[in-house]
Amino acid sequence: MNPVQAFIRTTAAGALLALYAGAHAAALPLKTADGAPTVLAEEQETVQVAADLLRRDLGAVVGAPARPVRRLEDCARVCFVLGRHDSVLMADVARRAGVDLSWLRGQWERYERAVLPLPGAPDKHMVLIAGADARGTAYGVIDVTRELGISAWEWWADVAPPARPDAALATERLRARAPSVRYRGIFLNDEDWGLQPWAARHDPSGDIGPATYARIFELMLRLKANLVWPAMHDSTTPFYQIDGNAEVAKKYGIVVGTSHAEPMMRNNVREWVRGQRGDFNFFTNRKALVDYWGERVAQVKGYENVYSVGIRGVHDSAMEGATSLRQARDAVGDAIGVQRQLLASAHGQDPAHVPQALTLYKEVLDIYRAGLQVPDDITLLWPDDNYGYLHQLSTPAEARRGGGTGLYYHLSYWGRPHDYLWLGTTNPELVRDQLQRAVATGARKMWVANVGDIKPLEYLTQYFLDCAFDADLLNAPAQDHLRRWVAQQFGAAAAGDIAAVLRDYYELAWERRPEFMGFSQVESITPVRQSDYLGSGGEEAERRLQRYQALAERARALGASLPASLREAYFQLVLYPVQSSAHLNLRILKLDLAAQYAREGRQAASLYARQAAAAQQAISRDTAEYNAMAQGKWAGMMDAAPRKLPVFEAPLFPAYGRSSRDDCTLAYPGALSSQGDSLNFTAGVAGLRTLTVVRRGASAQTWSVAAAPAGIGTEVSGGTLDAGNGFEQRVAVRYDGKGAVDGLVLRCGEAMLKAAITLAPAPVAGLPGEQERIVALPAATGAATKGWGAAPGLGSYGNSMRADLDLPSRPLAQASAAPVLSYAFSSTSSGEAQLVFVALPVHPLTSENQVRVAYRLDDGPMQLLDFATRGRSDEWKRNVLSNTAVRSVRLDELPPGAHRLQVFALDPGFVLDRIEVRFDGAPNYYGKPL
């Protein structure tokens, strides 16, 4: 088995293929003396789309055109035969070949693939792909193209198909399992800054029309998605107002639905004209609304749709006219009843047989919780809180609904407390965690992801949809899928290194997304302010900048090593998001540091201000390059400042004057905390701190390490302070945990500068102790009993602990019987302290659960911690912007010595990131302790 075939069997496509005969059969060469394979396909339009795609991909791989044929007798030496199992073509071929396809009757999107001698021509082979339906046939084709190494992003990210004239197809006889989720889709949203401007330049309709949707639907076929919620902002002509849109969806086998704010396939933003129809008010203008809905139902009844039911405001707002929650509940129930009557009349059947969904988004979830009675056949869609945390999921009773349940999930968002529309930065491990919750609670009827403009959310979109098609992928960390995905785009050789770059990219954004780095909010819009990364001096900001700089350098080096044919794809999928994140962080943090260093009289202020300005220019340069790639193919697609929010605005870049002093000094990392002007280590514990040699004058000066005790080492031993480095040098100082610390002396010109080093008392042997008056306990370092499990890739230390999803909720009185995490630690300080629990801001798993743990410190009493938030409170806003939920407990006295802390899981799905024991005077870091 070649590497491509091995890859396909470890992705969603491969995992869904169940081998039942011909194990390890020989591969079938695709290019023969006759040239490329031929393709025989039934006339059904979706099958014909799949046949065209297959011919295109075969031609790209084997280097010769794959032609269509209309009869078996016209087949080349290798011939693909495609069709629904009960089509005239497939029934005849199956009869002549002696293949029983009856098992496909009544199945959903499944297929059988078999390599057989061509009837009547034993020296030829046919690759039979028989689908239970048209999409099943198309997915059989997609699995072939994936096996040949064709990326789903072949067109959408310019991933060049691999030329492999010797390509061969595995000959195992395969039966595909059914998709894990019946309806798997994307919501094209907030398209104002990418997809719509791009389509306005490239689509003959001048908008998101049939040509654009054909490309989108081809991508969806390649991703095995079957449902779309079309673009619906007022910048875009509504889907059904452009001739051909509905027809192209039918051609590609795509089911059309509409978003939570668009009942009955209506785009209210552009289609409800108040001057003609009146207020969008079900209480005062009922007939106009019913007529409006009825018009669209009659128009689209011949297509495959999932109808959104219920009623909200015109554009993502609460329903008009309701003065109480009870009145809103009763009106929504009444509206659903009217809508079902319209469906029954138009379709001529019981509405229970017409797919419908109610998305419990924003106030609709409150209405549902208030007792809304929803007919059993309607699918309930559970929403996240717009930031990737599902509000609630199905109880056992809800999971048993005839219409089932599903989810609506944001990978991109416009709204409070802040947008993230520019770059795809949601951590895939969070997506995994949340989708695992959906599977565990039976929410498997429909999954829809808000993917914004599609680009640059390519990977996140594919991961979401791959997991929807094959939920078994959720059994392994998302990083496993990421590495295989990278291999499919760029080859196996560089896959590990590129995947590592992307993991670091997601990890840095986990702590703070680039769009959130202004520490501002929207609706109403607030100005940017100084970053919280400077809350304890500049060291936390400096380290974040170092990580981003190193990440961008690695990304550039890897891109330069790729073949030229893959570099534009790499720029879109990896380099642009990595560099843009780095540059925005650099612009913001360098400018804040410049202001601080100027106040300290440091010449580096001017250098940092210039570097901040260069970073802003780099964002503009990279964005222009993105829009110019592929000879202008992507012109208009990338906007680096969606909604022109304050975080994106180019600030004033000040010019700082020279210092009046002309001496050298040392700057310490804890200048704004009680740690003060010294390097702080703990006896017996190896550590690393950063010291900065600062030249206040404007002329170059040499520096060197003049003396260092046995226990102290520096990563650089000398250099020159000049304009190129801002007349200062950061020096990493390492303590080995054994030797002495006093006596580190640096020479700057003729001046001898002795470094102040503080050594805190040693902790109890073998136990975590204090660093900078903080004891840090990463969640995964605790001893866990059954009921707690690792959540790899999540949290500030890259590995959190989650309470199992099948745990029962318990009251505090039963906490001692709950699963427990145990931590032993040592403190050397005494007096008042804070016990800080940092969790992920998850919500209760279902309406029957909460988000609670209990803890016990040493032999103290059992104490309850409840992490629930209410609505869009200020606490919830802080939580989602930082991916943390924090509970702090004041300890009046914590004596020095060994301690034990236990954390008990009272509810399923709680995720613990870390615990900190913080003594008065500890640095106030934004993220985890340094």
Quickly list its features:
930 residues; alpha/beta; Chitobiase, domain 2; TIM Barrel; Methane Monooxygenase Hydroxylase, Chain G, domain 1; 8-stranded parallel β-sheet; 7-stranded mixed β-sheet; 22 helices; 31% helix; globular
**Looking at this structure, what is the CATH superfamily of the largest domain?**
Glycosyl hydrolase family 115
How is the main sheet built? 8 strands, parallel
- Measured between the Cα atoms of the first and last residue, the distance is 47 Å
| Shape summary | globular
Low-confidence stretches: 6-24
* Backbone structural class: alpha/beta
SS element count, helices: 22
Output the strand order for the largest sheet.
12-11-10-17-16-15-14-13
Q: What would a concise description of this structure say?
A:
The chain has 930 residues and is an alpha/beta fold. An eight-stranded parallel beta sheet has the order 12-11-10-17-16-15-14-13. A seven-stranded mixed beta sheet has the order 1-9-6-7-5-3-4, with helices on both faces. Strands 28, 30, 31, 33, 36 and 38 form a six-stranded antiparallel beta sheet that branches.
How is the secondary structure organized here?
Blueprint: H1 3-8, H2 12-15, E1 17-21, E2 28-29, E3 38-41, H3 45-62, E4 68-69, E5 78-84, H4 88-97, E6 111-118, E7 121-131, H5 134-147, E8 168-169, E9 173-176, E10 183-188, H6 195-202, H7 210-222, E11 227-229, H8 245-251, E12 255-256, H9 268-271, H10 274-277, H11 286-300, E13 307-308, H12 325-347, E14 356-359, H13 363-369, E15 379-383, H14 396-399, E16 405-410, H15 428-440, E17 446-452, H16 458-469, H17 478-490, H18 495-511, H19 539-561, H20 564-599, H21 604-632, E18 664-667, E19 679-682, E20 687-695, E21 701-707, E22 712-714, E23 718-721, E24 728-735, E25 745-748, E26 751-754, E27 757-760, E28 774-778, E29 783-784, E30 788-792, E31 799-803, E32 820-827, E33 833-839, E34 852-857, E35 863-866, H22 874-882, E36 885-891, E37 897-905, E38 911-919
Parallel strand pairs: 3-4, 3-5, 5-7, 10-11, 10-17, 11-12, 13-14, 14-15, 15-16, 16-17, 19-27
Antiparallel strand pairs: 1-9, 2-8, 6-7, 6-9, 18-20, 20-24, 21-23, 21-25, 22-24, 25-26, 28-38, 29-32, 30-31, 31-38, 32-37, 33-36, 33-38, 34-35, 34-37
Helix pairs in contact: 3-5, 7-8, 11-12, 15-16, 17-18, 18-19, 18-20, 19-20, 20-21
